[in-house]
Amino acid sequence: MSTPLTVRIDRAADGQLVLFATGEIDASNVADFAKALDAGIDSDADSLTVDLSAVEYLDSAAINALAPHAESLEIIANPVLMRVLMVSGLTELAKIRPAPDADS
């Protein structure tokens, strides 16, 4: 059974492409995430912002989808994801910043 995940690509007010993901990213749904990621990377943009602020969990399948594109990505991550992104080494390859805390 697939884990719930919603992905969409929009343009921010400044014209920057943003991939928004909501839910969890794991082996059961990473193909949908990777397809959206590839579509954003293959666009005419120089970089892609990946907004993971509404993602509560990701596993190595998600890291493996992000890693080949890391130098072209700016990732906004749910603070609960920061540890796994650091341990995976992705923070050394991509621009990653924690999303603002909803309680702030």
From TrEMBL:
- The record places domain STAS at 14-66
GO MF, one example: anti-sigma factor antagonist activity
User: Could you list the residue ranges that cross the membrane?
Assistant: none
> Pfam families, per this entry?
STAS
**Which InterPro entries has this protein been placed in?**
STAS_dom (IPR002645), STAS_dom_sf (IPR036513)
Give the source's domain of life in one word: Bacteria
* Coiled-coil residues: none
* Name of the protein described by the UniProt record: STAS domain-containing protein
What is the protein's species of origin?
Mycolicibacterium sarraceniae
